[in-house]
Each structure stands twice: as structure tokens, then as C-alpha cells.
Write a structure and sequence with these properties.
Rossmann fold; 6 strands; alpha/beta; single chain; 6-stranded parallel sheet; about 40% helix
Length: about 160
């Protein structure tokens, strides 16, 4: 079963990336992919989730997995639900959430380890990673890891 991972830089200033992301995901769907996976830590992750949700309105059989790296990401929603019941907006109520067994991982490495586990479970990567970025970049490290693992890579960085 083919699954596509989305990984990208935390901040995106080029809003044309969304259109490229939409077209790339749509092409994957047309090629038969129905399973998509992304994290929750930045602009690209939010963009990927939004695109997948939008595409699922037309392609009802799309499966969306959202990888969380810490219970702290969902704790405010749980606490709020206990007080106000089901009326609260639940940001992940329409997707499958998964969390890899990384609780013992140092907090500064959790996203990197999660990205690797996500890549290990996928057959392709749609990313937004600047190959010339001069600083340490989790997105670039993930893209290099995916390349080393032999995944097909679509980099939307222009």
C-alpha cells in the first residue's frame, strides 16, 4: 500500500507553495495513492493537512494520518473537552492521529525521530526543503534521510 509523507520547513513565506502542494497531492491521488501522513509543527504541515482535507471532499476514500510528537500537543484540547463537552472544535477529529514510541527521546530530537519513523512507513515524500539552506534544517535532514532510504521525492521548493 502506497503512503505519501509530507515534510517541510516550519515557516513558508512563498504562498504559491500551496498550489504546488495541491497539484502534487492531486497527482498522487490520480496515480492511485489514498494514504497521506504529516506532522503538526509548522506552516508546511498545516498546509499539507488543509490540502488533504480539501481533496478528501472530492476523493472520499483518502486516509489522513497526523503524527503528533507529544501528548502536550493534544492535552489542551482534552482538558477543554472535559469542561465544555463535545461542542469544542477538535482539530484532529476527522483524521487518524498516531504517535511513535519516542517518549524516551530527548525533546530536541523528537521531531527528527518522528520524521524518520514517518519516512520509514512511506513509499514517497512530498517536501518543501531548501537544498541550499545554510543552517541546520529538519526538513532538509528528512529529505536526505528519505533519499538514503530510496523513497521517491517530490521537492516543492522553487
Amino acid at each position: 500500500m502506497e503512503k505519501i509523507a509530507f515534510i517541510g520547513h516550519r515557516q513558508i513565506f512563498d504562498m504559491s507553495v500551496r498550489e504546488r502542494l495541491y497539484n502534487a497531492a492531486l497527482q498522487e491521488i490520480k496515480n492511485g495513492c489514498k494514504n497521506f501522513c504529516m506532522g503538526t509543527h509548522g506552516d508546511f504541515d498545516k498546509m499539507a493537512l488543509g490540502v488533504c482535507r480539501e481533496l478528501r471532499k472530492t476523493y472520499k476514500d483518502i486516509n489522513i494520518e497526523v503524527v503528533i510528537t507529544s501528548f502536550a500537543q493534544i492535552k489542551p484540547v482534552v482538558d477543554h473537552d472535559e469542561i465544555f463537552g463535545d461542542e469544542i472544535f477538535k482539530p484532529f477529529d476527522d483524521v487518524e492521529t498516531i504517535m511513535f514510541d519516542i517518549e524516551e527521546t530527548h525533546f530536541k530530537q523528537k521531531i527528527t525521530v518522528s520524521n524518520r519513523r514517518m519516512i520509514d512507513s512511506c513509499s514517497a515524500l512530498i517536501c518543501y526543503a531548501n537544498p541550499n539552506y545554510k543552517y541546520s534544517s529538519g526538513a532538509l535532514a528528512a529529505m536526505k534521510y528519505a533519499k538514503k532510504k530510496g523513497l521517491r521525492i517530490v521537492n516543492l521548493f522553487a
